[in-house]
Amino acid sequence: MSMSDPLANMLAxxxxxxxxxxxxxxxxxxxxxxxxxxxxEEEGYIRGxxxxxxxxxxxxxxxxxxxxxxxxxxxSMQKLSKPGRRVYASVGKFPKVYNGxxxxxxxxxxGVMCDYEARQQKVGGELLxxxx
Length: 132
What we know:
This protein is α+β, with helices and mostly antiparallel strands. It contains three helices and ten strands, in the order H-E-H-E-E-E-E-E-E-E-E-H-E.
């Protein structure tokens, strides 16, 4: 059976892994997931990620979760765009996450990036998720 929203599945796996105090988790791989993880790593929400294999010998991604004094770095993570309802925004209409303390991961024509990079490059796109 195929997943209808693999990105939401990865975000849930990160959330569940942090609640269980795991040091790393393995999720199925895709190009979109890699680019979202790259943004999360650049912003300091995860330690890193690398290619790995899932239990059924398919390509996967091993995500190193990050904690500060035993508390997960990611306080909340929300999927904004869903398969049934895509959310798009122009550069001036990006919502603020916790008054600018969090980030929004945006899929633009210039690639996947965080909201303030998209503002600098003056491009809008699909709002994938918000992270704080």
